Amino acid sequence: MGASVDGSIGLREDRRGAREKEERNPVDQQTKAALKKDKFVTSTSHGLEWAAENRRSVITTTALLLAAIGILVLSGVLYNNRMNAATVAFGAAMQTYQTPLAPPGQPVPAGVKTFPSIVERAKAANAQFSDIASRYGLTPSGRIARYFAGLTYIEEGNNQAAEDTLKKVAGGWNKNLAALAKFALAQLYHDSARDPQAIDLYNQLAAKPAVTMPAGLAKLQLAALYESEGKADEAKKIYAALKQDDAKGTAGQIAAEKLNPAPPQARQ
């Protein structure tokens, strides 16, 4: 009897302890079981445990990420500064390239800068364009400066340097700038008796025109090249096609005039 009473008292005490425990921790057993099965909670718990155990590496990694972001921001600022510097330098080079010519002995207004010849002006401008292309080659101004460096090499009479420079521009990703470089190269090839290479470039430009180089212009230049070689029939074929395909366009109108030139009196 005493053992039974003691057992009952113990059971009541156990139940009372369980209730008190539940009151202190209101999450019931069913919820606990569900939480154990919840993958998100489990992964989060593991993540917190990992973070606690690897606190030093987490802090280090975070610091590295912040440093990387800082470097990217700084790089953007530096790139903008370089772009601005390249733009200013390119403007100065263009001023040199557009400086008027005045042969020795010709009166020049006070304070006006001039060059005695195209060659001298080209050399001065080329030095500036080449420097910009070398220092700021990844900026828009730097890429355009390389193209102008090629042009000024031609004006200097340095055909090999002009060809090497223009080839770099022609092989670039900028389609419009590449088209201009190919056009300049084609003219250089024609002037240096390498017409097959010039013809190939004109055909490329005609097949894949750009904003800076319409197909009609490339075809007109190709026709003019054929005329210079005495291949009048080849030139007429191009003019006839342009007249038909671009009747209202500038290229088509020029082609029509080439096919039916006006009498000398009418031109006057």
Keywords:
268 residues, mainly alpha, disordered N terminus, Serine Threonine Protein Phosphatase 5, Tetratricopeptide repeat, globular
Concise structural overview:
With 268 residues, the chain is mainly α.
If you had to describe this structure to a student in words, what would you say it looks like?
Among the domains are: 79-101 and 113-170; 175-258, Serine Threonine Protein Phosphatase 5, Tetratricopeptide repeat. The protein contains 13 helices and no strands. It has helices at 2-24, 29-37, 39-53, 55-97, 118-135, 140-156, 159-170, 175-191, 195-207, 215-228, 232-245, 250-259, 264-267. Helix 6 (140-156) packs antiparallel against helix 7 and helix 8 runs antiparallel to helix 9. The relative contact order is 0.04.
CATH architecture of the domain at 175-258: Alpha Horseshoe
Question: What is the gyration radius calculated from CA atoms?
Answer: 39 Å
Which quaternary structure do these chains form?
A: single chain
Which secondary-structure class do the elements indicate? Answer: mainly alpha
What gap, in angstroms, lies between the N and C termini? 141 Å
CATH topology of the domain at 175-258: Serine Threonine Protein Phosphatase 5, Tetratricopeptide repeat
User: What is the strand content?
Assistant: under 5%
Give the rounded overall mean pLDDT.
79
Write the layout of secondary structure elements.
Elements: H1 2-24, H2 29-37, H3 39-53, H4 55-97, H5 118-135, H6 140-156, H7 159-170, H8 175-191, H9 195-207, H10 215-228, H11 232-245, H12 250-259, H13 264-267
